[in-house]
Specification:
Elements (H helix, E strand, L loop, with lengths): L4 E6 L3 H7 L6 E5 L9 H14 L5 E5 L4 H11 L6 E4 L5 H18 L6 E6 L2 H5 L1 H5 L4 E6 L1 H8 L6 H19 L5 E2 L8 H14 L3 E4 L2 H10 L4 H16 L5 E2 L5 E2 L1 H14 L1
Parallel strand pairs: 1-2, 1-8, 2-3, 3-4, 4-5, 5-6, 7-8
Antiparallel strand pairs: 9-10
Helix pairs in contact: 2-3, 9-10, 11-12
């Protein structure tokens, strides 16, 4: 099964950290950045280090670090750990920043003699980052992109429902850049309105149609919705397998699906993706 739900958890709240493994998310994003006040940064790092030693999480653990030079070294000293899957790097503007991050991670990994190399999720939150999305997607360690829509809206000055048209450009760019770089499809942005779960489901379904295979959450109530939307139904899995079977029986080239429509290798690629998500 692919990583569908990514739950943000502020590291300065130890109780929320402890409960996070029970929320059903495929991945946790332990936050040292915007979800933590400046006065609580040291506490958050201490909580993270202590929690990692005791955590029984079976899912992926990511850590969102601070972008600023005066913060990131201290963040990485706590975040680089055998149980951590990767780093969420905020405000990514270009690939050069990722090269610097790669070097910093390598130093910490060597110091701890880690058996695996940490991955990077590049969080794009500015117009500059959007225009550089293709090179960012090809940056060292990057396995997926995420758009920080609130910061992006602030950067480009959009507001209201009309701003959706402008932001949609960034959402689409993330999909194309990811596909071009051969990395995982991007993680859909959070919704700050965690009370309207009906709208949250609708917007999550749209993200799936746009080429996303997971979404970030800020509240546990959103997790089950994301898992449900990004899990192929039995009918979808059966239909995808049927497409592959029919093409195989036809010896390649083209064939006809159960509905009498023509299918070819392009349709087969979509079917394989559906099946891979369901594995």
């Amino acid at each position: 099964m692919s990583t569908r739900s990514h739950l943000y958890v502020p590291a300065n709240d130890l109780e929320r950290l402890k409960k996070s493994v029970e929320r059903g998310a495929d991945a946790l994003i332990i936050d040292l950045e915007d979800g933590v006040s400046v006065s609580d940064k040291d506490l958050a790092r201490e909580n993270l280090a202590n929690w990692l030693e005791l955590s029984s999480s079976q899912g992926q653990i990511w850590v969102r670090v601070n972008h600023e030079k005066q913060q990131i070294d201290s963040d990485l000293a706590s975040a680089v750990h055998p149980k951590v899957t990767g780093i969420v790097f905020p405000k990514t503007a270009n690939a050069q920043e990722l090269t610097v991050l790669d070097e910093k991670l390598a130093v910490q990994e060597k110091k701890l003699k880690l058996s695996h190399e940490l991955k990077v999720c590049a969080l794009i939150e500015s117009a500059t980052g959007v225009f550089n999305a293709r090179e960012i997607a090809q940056g060292p360690r990057v396995t997926r992109l995420q758009i920080g829509e609130s910061d992006l809206r602030a950067d480009i000055g959009t507001s209201g429902s009309g701003g959706e048209i402008t932001v949609q450009y960034a959402r689409s760019i993330a999909v194309f850049a990811s596909a071009s770089a051969g990395i995982n499809p991007p993680v859909a942005a959070v919704s700050t309105d965690f009370t309207d779960l009906v709208d949250f489901r609708s917007s999550t379904e749209r993200f799936r149609e746009w080429g996303y295979i997971g979404r970030a959450c800020i509240h546990p109530a959103q997790v089950s919705i994301v898992n449900d939307v990004f899990t192929p139904t039995d009918d979808e899995l059966e239909r995808a397998q049927n497409i592959l079977d029919r093409l195989s029986q036809a010896g390649g080239g083209v064939a006809v699906d159960a509905q009498g429509k023509m299918i070819d290798e392009a349709i087969a690629r979509i079917a394989r993706r559906i099946l891979s998500v369901g594995d």
